[in-house]
């Protein structure tokens, strides 16, 4: 384990009043969050501005975006630019979630542009990768996952990729209640880290945070986070309740 990171992906859930209640519940427990953990919440984009005001000067949690455009400004109706996110104090950005790859046809070249745009604005990309069930069953899953990483990230300079967080999220585990076993997750995390070491070097590979995502919850986080190459989790459903998010964030040995 190189870092300890837990990020909550709230997706398109919660109306504004519910989201404010969740933030309040989290803040009420802020002293109980392990200060060694990089804690991140990624609420829906319309709430970022108000959340940034509330969390101004707070160190225990950082804000992340769920998506961003790859240019800083211009005539792109409906898009949110990394410069705008930076101006709010957003420090992390999810890129390439499988829901965006599938529903919005985001391919490797668009994702690599989004990653670069975030880095240029000092926002840490949380780059998602992962395979569908039929890919896992076909036994080419390792190369499938590595191609996603290779095509979108391996042109980055060493000092750029060192800043990245990668989230391994098997699609068959997302929102299904079917978690990858700790051995299945560790196998992929180890593969990712060793390929980064071969492409760059070990120092760089050890700086990259590698998260597991896919039905990670208060019951299974401890076992997953105990694996050598699992640096924490990207948490969907279980991040929508303050208590389970706290248990997950504190699940490191
Ligand atoms: C996610 O979509 O990033 C995710 C990990 O979801 P869940 O935890 O609900 O499976």
Walkthrough of the structure:
The protein is of the alpha/beta class and 253 residues long. It has a single domain (5-249), classed as TIM Barrel. 43% of the residues lie in helices and 15% in strands. It contains twelve helices and eight strands. It has helices spanning 16-28, 48-55, 82-88, 98-104, 108-120, 133-138, 141-153, 158-161, 182-199, 202-207, 221-225, 242-249, and strands spanning 5-9, 38-42, 62-65, 92-95, 124-129, 165-168, 209-213, 232-235. An eight-stranded parallel beta barrel has the order 1-2-3-4-5-6-7-8, surrounded by five helices. The structure holds phosphoenolpyruvate (PEP). Residues 9, 169, 174-175, 213-216, 234-238 line the site of phosphoenolpyruvate (PEP). Phosphoenolpyruvate binds at residues 9, 169, 174-175, 213-216, 234-238.
Per-chain topology:
Blueprint: E1 5-9, H1 16-28, E2 38-42, H2 48-55, E3 62-65, H3 82-88, E4 92-95, H4 98-104, H5 108-120, E5 124-129, H6 133-138, H7 141-153, H8 158-161, E6 165-168, H9 182-199, H10 202-207, E7 209-213, H11 221-225, E8 232-235, H12 242-249
Parallel strand pairs: 1-2, 1-8, 2-3, 3-4, 4-5, 5-6, 6-7, 7-8
The structure holds phosphoenolpyruvate (PEP).
